[in-house]
Amino acid sequence: MTLDDLKARHTALLAARYSGTRSVSYDGKSINYGSDTELAAAIADVERRIAVLERTSRRVLRPFAVKDL
Prior knowledge:
With 69 residues, the chain is mainly α. The protein has one domain (3-57). Helices cover 57% and strands 12% of the residues. It has 2 helices and 2 strands, in the order αββα. The protein has helices at residues 3-19, 36-57; strands at 23-26, 29-32. Strands 1-2 form a two-stranded antiparallel sheet. The termini are far apart.
């Protein structure tokens, strides 16, 4: 799943939670959550996945050397 897909799913989940519904539709699929706790857990999972993808894409390694004297 790409970063854009995850962001779209995150937006759909947040919109559903703020509107008070427990049904989310995106990419032609519909999911019904039993409670707000399940919806919050789904949001947290998507946020973790977004953070992982954004963190790995921004990582820059800069090698350096130290000379012992």
